[in-house]
Amino acid sequence: MCGIVAYIGKENCRDIILEGLKRLEYRGYDSAGIAILNTNTDDGEPAVEIIKEAGKIRDMEALAVKSKIDGKCGIGHTRWATHGEPTAVNAHPHKDCTGKIALVHNGIIENYEQLREELKSQGHNFLSETDTEVLPHLLEKYYDGDLLAAMQELVKRIKGSGAIAAISSHCPDEIIGARIASPLIAGVSKMGNFLASDMPAVLKHTRKFLIINDYETVRLTEGGVEIFSRDGRPVNRKPFKANWSIESAEKSGYEDFMLKEIFEQPYGVKETMRGRLTDGEPGFEESGLTCDQIKGLSKVQIIACGSSYHAALIGKQVIEKWSKIPVEVDFSSEYRYRDPLVEKDSLSIAISQSGETIDTLAAIREAKSKGARVMAITNVVGSTIARESDSVIYTHAGPEIGVCATKTFTSQIIIMYLMGLYFGRLRGFIDKERYREIISQLNMIPGKIQNILDRAEELKKIAEHTYRKSCFLFLGRKHGLPAALEGALKLKEISYIHAEGYPAGEMKHGPIALTDTGTVVVGIMPLDSVYEKMLSNIQEVRARRAMIFSIVSENDGSIHEYADYTFKVPETPEELYGIITIIPLQLYSYYIAKNLGRNVDQPRNLAKSVTVE
Ligand code: F6R
Q1: What pLDDT is stored for residue 1 in this prediction?
Q2: pLDDT tens profile 60-114
Q3: Please, are residues 349 and 321 in contact by the beta-carbon 8 Å criterion?
Q4: In the list 263, 323, 409, 551, which could disulfide-bond 405, CB 3.0-4.6 Å?
Q5: Residues facing 418 on adjacent strands
Q6: CATH number at residue 543
Q7: CA-CA distance, 418 to 283, in Å (whole number)?
Q8: Residues 448, 484: one domain?
Q9: Is the N-terminal amide bond of 93 cis, ω within 30° of 0?
Q10: Are the C-beta atoms of 107 and 82 separated by less than 8 Å?
Q11: Does residue 575 sit in the same domain as residue 482?
């Protein structure tokens, strides 16, 4: 859950690396560092120079800017601590005993204790508490005039995961990288070449990328990128062109990435539908599934974590309703340990915005080992989950930098709706008129989201009145339930206030005991088939003196009698309320967190890509 970036080329590398790190800060932000082959030395010979610091990248940047480092080859790292506290000593880059090799790493070395003991017994000196520090010492051990060969030996010794980049004054004209189950891409440009954990790090300089696969090593020089297979043979791979723009990875005048990404949702939703609703008919050619296979599906199994799990819950409701295929939804982290049954003719769907979540990846591997056919839904082209699945559906929401999922979440929901309709039509279970109605209503979703965004001030005011409360319960039923779960997740992750999402009907079985004057109950209660039931549940908590904030439909006339605050959303068929009702909850959580002075883009203890279990 860290970010790495490396550059070698014609330009001075310090600022390129610092800027790349800032774009990767969403992956980890407790300490940072750079190592540069400094040519500003007394004898003019390039020497490894490391600058690292605990805290934000800007703390380390201040030191780097003051230094006299000058060089055209370097590596950088932003950390999310796993082994050892976030201190300057534990920050990357780490170096070998000679100080001639420096290395950055994103991942976990599971056998580091054993390697550390072995290296110590051979005279190597360790300075930090990290697992990573064994890596530069392994390179030192295996270095015999060829850093690439040493890296290839290192890869053979490691258990765990890693995206690695190393430089050395032994060979100042190259950067050597390797990948073992952590994301790593190479960027190719005329000004030089890059390695990075993710594309936004170097989008400013290039949109041409090469994917590095597991157990491959890579050599970067000013003039090129060479990739080598696990057994050391050169790999011939063509770069692909990313369609993400640099503007999409910048704040563009918004106070935070999260706010920008919330406001980008009408566009993100349209982009996700574009090309998939040709002539008004949803299409999923990339699924690789034939009509007969879809007609014969015995079950759909969805695996996901966090917000993606909530999108999966919406998927379950609409796929079951429209196509009559039974759908199971599992947390990825539970699925792989419960000895799941993979039925004949079933389809497994893995949802992950980042495409790198290790729990989901492990669940995919578990499902595949049992013979499942796995389809991925992700926002990141070429991500590990995309590559390890049998087929992939991209969401096209654009890069999401804020740690909190917003536009990627709504784009996942769109895919769920379209897939439900697609399966439903092919299997003949959805009424034709209803099918047409839902498709035409789907086309109106971007406009309805815009309508809500245009009234953000209303939510800001409600947040100002409620942000001091210490307990929030988000209640919903049926299509309102996934939104309630997601609303609570948004609030807790960015404001650090205790919040729970709950099925409204379950309150009386326990949680109602929590309600008192310090509680805010957020009721997701659009005018749908369970509205009356929601109304009763809201009255129950109101009788226990909770403060009530209700998300209702625009034609709701009676809610004022029961709620302290209301926010009205445009009417829509009830299946589509899942996407409509989450928008005010995202904004509400955002404004509460801002009132509390939180860093919404980088909430404490969280990272955008969760690549550790
Ligand atoms: C919440 C959030 C997380 C992710 C979860 C899964 O705002 O972002 O809960 O949804 O970590 O991540 P992906 O979708 O990348 O697998």
Answers
A1: 62
A2: 999 999 998 889 999 999 987 778 888 999 999 999 999 999 999 998 898 999 9
A3: no
A4: 409
A5: none
A6: 3.40.50.10490
A7: 8
A8: no
A9: yes
A10: no
A11: yes
Ligand 1 site, residue 405, Cβ cutoff 6 A: yes
Name 267's Cβ contacts closer than 8 Å, sequence gap at least 6.
398, 446
Can you give the pTM of this predicted structure? 0.79
What gap in Å lies between CA 164 and CA 177, rounded to an integer?
A: 5
The Cα–Cα gap between 175 and 221 comes to 7
Least confident range from 215-219, 247-251, 464-468: namely: 247-251
**445 CA from centroid of ligand 1 (Å):** 23
Query: Does 606 map to a domain?
Result: no
Q: How many CA atoms are closer than 13 Å to the CA of 413, on its beta-carbon side?
A: 31
Q: What CATH number is attached to the domain comprising 202? A: 3.60.20.10
* Domain with 212 in it: 3-244
Determine the 3-state secondary structure of 598 from DSSP: coil
306 lines ligand 1 (CB under 6 A): yes
Of residues 325 and 29, which shows the higher confidence score? 325
Task: Judge whether 287 and 375 are in contact, CB under 8 Å.
Answer: yes
**Using CA positions, which residue lies closest to atom 16 of ligand 1?**
352
Same-domain status, 240 and 291: no
Specify whether 126 is located in the same domain as 227: yes
**CB of 603 closer than 6 A to ligand 1?**
no
Nearest CA owner, ligand 1 atom 13: 352
